[in-house]
Amino acid sequence: MATHSNPNTSFDPTRTAVLVIDPVNDFLHEDGAAWEMTKSTVKKNDVVAQLARLTQGAREAGVPVLFGPMAYTAEDYANEGLQRRSGINRLMFENRMFLAGSFGADFHSDIQPQPGDIILAPHKGTDVLQTDLREHLDRLGTTHLVIAGMTANLCVESTGRHATELGYDVTFLSDAIGAESLPAYEASIHLNFPLIANAVLEVDEFLGSLAPGPIPTEPGVQPGDTVYGSDRGQVGTVEEVVAATEGVPGYLVVQRGAIFDKHLFVPLDAVTHRSGTSTFINIPKLVVSKLPWDEPPTAETAAVKLGTPAAEVAALYRTHAPTGG
């Protein structure tokens, strides 16, 4: 069984990449074709300024910045019939959005790619991983993908979900993301993102976890740290950091509230990163109470959570095996 000591909790610039999705005029400029839909969340979060801060801060820390835009040509519609594929493709087609070579498909003037940045081939649907993105991530050695841009419940979520399924660690930056409506934004940020990714952070929290040069090995999580869920909900305060022993994973003793003296025993491998004295775990606060973290782990409970070794499983679905398996 793998054991985990107090993990390094910073973002490693050599393994992290920032993906900015669709930072273009049709979404972000008042003359853009989608501005009437996106302006409420873009203004609320000051998305343009936040994306500018994010990209500059990432570059200064040596983190690669990738831009994932859209651009449609006549052939996409005449030959491929993209307008028949989905509701969002129909919407873009009818409103002449992201047309190749147009003002709307161009990058916003405040979020221009710089030398050394990577501009991806255009995505034609809602998943940027259907482009050359993965090739670039593999070449860069990326294991942690940080996602911002437009829009929360479509391209941002689809790409983040796919990246998670491929094995990348994924972080969404909530104040550098917009959507076509406030309900769509809120549902993504508070319900979907916290369950399909490591965490939902703000730009300052992400940049605060980056440092130019070699990634520090200390400090890890410290007593007194405030623990936040992947939905940025406050879980409690770290009282103790318990190192792993033979067969028993390391864990945090977390105090939840001063009145009821209730403790949680949070596995160290649930910790994703630390910014200042804030420690983040990869489960939303809303579901922490559903987890069996009310007692310290033992070798027995750790083994049970692993399940049965494959060689000892007669049929994956108890009475059935996969067809063709």
TrEMBL record:
Q: Entry's InterPro entries?
A: Isochorismatase-like_dom (IPR000868), Isochorismatase-like_hydrls (IPR050272), Isochorismatase-like_sf (IPR036380), PRC_barrel-like_sf (IPR011033)
Entry's Gene Ontology molecular function annotations: hydrolase activity
Indicate the transmembrane segments per the record.
Answer: none
A Pfam family assignment: Isochorismatase
Q: Does the keyword Cell membrane apply?
A: no
N-terminal signal peptide = none
- SUPFAM superfamilies xref list: Isochorismatase-like hydrolases, PRC-barrel domain
Which residue windows are coiled coil?
none
**Keyword annotations:** Hydrolase
User: What is the designated name of this protein?
Assistant: Nicotinamidase-related amidase
The scientific name of the source species is Amycolatopsis arida
Starting at the broadest rank, the lineage of the source organism is:
Bacteria, Bacillati, Actinomycetota, Actinomycetes, Pseudonocardiales
